[in-house]
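Standup notes
- DV: blocked on the single-chain target, sequence here:
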Amino acid sequence: MSRLKTGGYAPLFDRLAQLDDKKGEVHWLNVKQLERSVFKELVRITQTRSRLTSSEFLNKKTLTVLDYGLPDFYGKSVQNSENRSEIHQILTKAFLFFEPRLKNINIEHLVDSQNKGELIFQISGDVQTDQSSEPVSFLISSESEFKDYLIEEQSLVG
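- DV (later): unblocked, structure below
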């Protein structure tokens, strides 16, 4: 008899990181693990520099693994509305191409009164599971790390 599964497949980085003696087994994540996996991938994207400039990144129709990450934001300021808009467009495009499990992406820039130059974004959307989608929300900054997201204590699935 078939079992009802909720969650989704683990991405390649997560599968390679798992040491498992069971060869050929499909790695299946439950909803909380899937949520953490998406968060980790968003952090990876934001912490990796693309080889492309901002304009090349935005003008390229399709991005490949060679373009993975974000262009360098050096010289851009979140205080400048044009720069903030460009960064928003870049983040949206990067997340759409490099994290396909996240749909209906909404990115909101947050201002830290203590450090106005730091990039802090609230990213919300729907995580695609095997049978449905679950709403999620993540807070990501230039200082984000994988450890910032504690599955046991904090679940962002609504």
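- Follow-up: Residues 1-5, 150-158 have pLDDT under 50 and may be disordered.
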